[in-house]
Specification:
- Its main location: cytoplasm.
- It is found in: Cytoplasm.
- This is Ornithine carbamoyltransferase.
- It is a single chain.
- This protein is α/β, with parallel strands linked by helices.
- It is built from twelve helices and nine strands.
- The chain has helices at residues 12-30, 53-64, 85-95, 106-115, 130-142, 160-172, 188-201, 211-215, 235-241, 249-252, 275-280, 282-308; strands at residues 42-47, 68-73, 98-102, 120-124, 151-155, 175-179, 204-208, 220-223, 260-263.
- α3 (85-95) packs across α4 and α6 (160-172) packs parallel to α7 (188-201).
Length: 309
């Protein structure tokens, strides 16, 4: 049995296999050919942190695969009231076939997975957001990019999205530049892990504080909010520290011709991205949002097949 906690747990071939499965299921869905890959299975969706895209995509996805999704906020279950995580895992995994959890701490996911009888999927943690990266990868491929030709630039906070881009690039072997303000770099242990992976995959990983250097020649430019949930008290300081890190028209001019721009949403126009750049790349951004649905269906079906294979 396999879990989906971080892309570091998967080989290049497995990531591409999951991607292609998602693309296949998407093609079928667009033809209104909804195959019941997960017929009558139950997905428990645990939310410590709220979300539009995660909630809708996993719920709709499970239904389109022939199963059922159960929404569980931390106010609904005992995980938010002192029950040990391992007990929650052992209870839910006896009643449901899959668990997706969107949590405050990555350690919560690891504890769920350790004691669960069924696959656990990371819907977001403070360390990683692998489901989003599968959607980003799907979008890049659909926009005509070959995986080994991707030159991605991540601009902004060295957060869970930056960490996930590090895992994706270092596993698949493409080039990644990350530009952050001083003091907002990705975690050292995750950077070191990416560098170790890159020695095998041939990936090129660069960290800089120069946004122009990062974006120059990139064919994928991406960013994330500067103030995530739980960081509201730091907003004013962060806005000051991130001055000059807005992806605007002048910065995008440095990217490769026909470069795509991705954003995991929600986007705060005028902060991490300008209104003009967002609207110029809206088709890509909202295709990326839709691909959460299709990429995650690929993840769920793939995990089910590993269990039953």
């Amino acid at each position: 049995m396999r879990h989906f906690l971080t892309l570091n747990d998967f080989s290049k071939d497995e990531i591409i296999e999951i991607l292609n499965l998602g693309l296949q299921i998407k093609k079928e869905a667009k033809a209104r050919d909804f195959k019941p890959y997960l017929k009558d299975q139950k997905l428990a969706m645990i939310f410590e942190k709220s979300s539009t895209r995660t909630r809708v995509s996993f719920d709709v996805g499970m239904n389109e695969l022939g199963g059922h999704a159960l929404f569980l906020s931390s106010n609904d279950i005992q995980i938010g009231r002192g029950e040990p995580i391992k007990d929650t895992a052992r209870v839910i995994s006896r009643m449901c076939d899959l668990i997706m959890a969107r949590v405050n701490r990555h350690e919560t996911l690891e504890e769920l997975a350790k004691f669960s009888r069924v696959p656990v999927i990371n819907g977001l943690s403070d360390k990683f957001h692998p489901a989003q990266l599968m959607a980003d990868l799907m979008t890049a491929v659909e926009c005509g990019l070959k995986i080994d030709e991707i030159k991605a630039a991540f601009v902004g906070d060295g957060n869970n999205m930056a960490h996930s881009w590090l895992m994706l690039a270092s596993k698949l072997g493409f080039e990644l530049r990350i530009a952050t303000p001083n003091g907002y770099e990705p975690d050292d242990d995750i950077v070191n892990l990416a560098i170790k992976n890159a020695q095998i995959s041939g990936a090129k990983i660069y960290l800089t504080q120069d946004v122009k250097e990062a974006v120059s020649g990139a064919n994928v430019v991406t960013t994330d909010t500067w103030v995530s949930m739980g960081q509201e008290a730091e907003k004013e300081k962060r806005l000051k520290d991130f001055a000059g890190f807005c992806v605007d028209e002048n910065l995008m001019k440095l990217a490769a011709p026909r470069a795509i721009f991705l954003h995991c949403l929600p986007a705060y126009r005028g902060y991490e991205v300008s209104e003009a750049v967002f609207e110029a790349h809206a088709d890509e951004i909202f295709a990326e949002a839709e691909n959460r649905l299709h990429a995650q269906k690929g993840v769920m079906v793939w995990l089910d097949r590993q269990r039953n294979g």
